[in-house]
Amino acid sequence: MSTDTKLQQQIKIEDLSLQQLNSLKEQFDDDISNLTNLYSKLKRAQSSFIECNSCLSTIEPNLIPDSKSDSSSLSTEQKVLVPLTNSLYVRGTLKNEDKVLVDVGTGYFVEKNLAAAKVFYNKKIEYIQQNSDKLLANITEKQKNLKALVEIMQQKAIASAQAASASK
């Protein structure tokens, strides 16, 4: 393809009619709404990963004296509450405190040690933060463009009202 066909045609926004500007405004409103919804979903996912990471911090291998020897050893059991629903829990016991199952997406779980799970969640948190920052910049740019468009619409409406009153 030649470079001429790759270039998009540019139209001055001032040359558009009020009806075309209104249609463009609706498109900007829809885009901003969709991007804002996506941004809030990213933030909810990020807070979920932050919560998972903080939960990993609560699982620390406990040192307890072993009755059979004089040295300390890692306990093999820790009492926990296991959530069945958002408001229903049962008592449970962790047999191996250093291993956890990590949801890596689409219903797949991977067994990881605590350190590897923390690294996994930290990477997810950082990745989502980078993407949400880019998305927020995109939303801000669209809002600036929308504001400029509304100002042009107002100028055109005032000009058409003045032209209508002058012709009377």
Automatic annotation (TrEMBL):
The keyword Coiled coil applies. GO terms for cellular component: cytoplasm; prefoldin complex. Pfam families: Prefoldin. One of its GO terms (molecular function) is unfolded protein binding. The keyword Coiled coil applies. Residues 18-45 form a coiled coil. GO terms for biological process: protein folding; RNA polymerase I assembly; RNA polymerase II core complex assembly; RNA polymerase III assembly. Keywords: Coiled coil. Signal peptide: none annotated. Belongs to the prefoldin subunit alpha family. PANTHER family: PREFOLDIN SUBUNIT 5 (PTHR12674). This is Prefoldin subunit 5.
